[in-house]
Amino acid sequence: DWMNVSRFDVTSVVRELSEVLGKTFRREIRVHSDNAVYMKGDKEKVRQLLLILIDNAIKYSKEPIDVRIRHSKNTIKLEVTDYGIGVPESEIPYMFERFYRVDEARHRSTGGSGLGLSIAKKIVDIHEGTVEVYSKQGNGTTIAIQFPRK
Ligand code: ATP
């Protein structure tokens, strides 16, 4: 994939995006982060990744959403947590596949294409990152992205 690599502050990307999405959808999006967290990567693509995750959190929950940015010497961790419908354990392995939608979502009037997470996964992959999903049906979902720090 073609990438436009620079060094940028992930925290400010998250804060800007959270403000716009919070206002647009009238939802509380809480950002938890210390200072500026710099990463080397494609800023626009990382922004798109966060947009997909926060957009899903908005669509599949009603409570406030928590976004956490953590960093250590070698990694940067981004976590988006919602307290919504959750994903059944058996469906988690498939949710990043193209056009895949969990039953409950498929029946929602506010549709989606099922492409969001497959694009998100591609963006993580080209940054050599990993994705983990923690979810409990009826309780909510955390999508945790980890990038190596370069
Ligand atoms: P779109 O492509 O418009 O984002 P989508 O939300 O259906 O549509 P994906 O983002 O790829 O597609 O997500 C795939 C499926 O994973 C969703 O249809 C939904 O069933 C499930 N899912 C994703 N995020 C969450 C979440 N935060 N809570 C519950 N289910 C989720």
TrEMBL record:
Query: From which source organism is this entry?
Result: Cohnella soli
Q: Where in the cell is it found?
A: Cell membrane
Where would I find the Histidine kinase domain in this sequence?
Answer: 1-150
Question: What is the name listed in the Swiss-Prot or TrEMBL entry for this protein?
Answer: histidine kinase
